[in-house]
Amino acid sequence: MDRRSAIRNLALVMGSAAILPYCTPGKPIAHYTHFDVNLDQQNLVAELAETIIPKTTSPGARDLELDKFVWLMLDDCTKKEDRDAFFKGMGEFNDLVKKSYNKTFSESTMDEKHTILNTFEKKPKPSQKNIDPSDDKYSKELLGFYGTVHWLTAFGYTESKYFMTKEIVWELVPGRYNAYFPVKNLKAAKNG
């Protein structure tokens, strides 16, 4: 074997080793303390978060990496039973999307994604105040999965550096001095 073919073979082996993890979607690609996440699960949460907070003139959930925030909060702040229910609900969510559209959530169009999410967002009418939660057509694991991703995505967005520096103006306590105060209000306050 000459030197050129040995180097070429070595390059092929190294390239194959680098590509192989991406060819196996069922294998874990992210390892957390209490669970592992495969590519399909990671893509589902990322797409779901991006559908909840899409990119417009401001960054979306993918830009702010809110899917990673969801996984970290799930790993750090939930009990084993809740994590198990989350993953069970994720499987039910996948089944619901495949049954409805015969494709995955990531492959669905934006209108289909919004239609799916709107089924979870339906609020009871004012005349239906005493609704029994057992009458719901979705399991509590499925509702818990969607609720967890939705809440953690919104929470992560409001706690992100972008939101804290660009969307709201933070002022050091006690805040700015407002010199304009009508005298008549001052007199009423002193007399009260």
The total of beta strands comes to 2
How do the SSEs run, as a string of H and E? HEEHHHHHHH
Q: Give the helix/strand class.
A: mainly alpha
Mean pLDDT: 82
Number of helices: 8
- The neighbouring-strand order within the major sheet is 1-2
Largest sheet: 2 strands, antiparallel
Shape descriptor: extended
Outline the low-pLDDT stretches: 128-135
- In percent, how helical is the residue content? 55-70%
End-to-end separation in angstroms reads 100 Å
Strand percentage: under 5%
The whole-angstrom Rg is 25 Å
How many domains? The number is 1
Structure description:
This protein has 192 residues and is mostly helical. It has one domain (28-124, 132-169). Helices cover 58% and strands 4% of the residues. It is built from eight helices and two strands. It has helices spanning 3-19, 39-52, 66-77, 80-101, 110-121, 140-158, 161-167, 183-191; strands spanning 28-31, 36-38. A two-stranded antiparallel sheet has the order 1-2. A hairpin with a 4-residue loop joins β1 (28-31) and β2 (36-38). α2 packs across α6. The radius of gyration is 25 Å and the shape is extended. Residues 128-135 have low confidence and may be disordered.
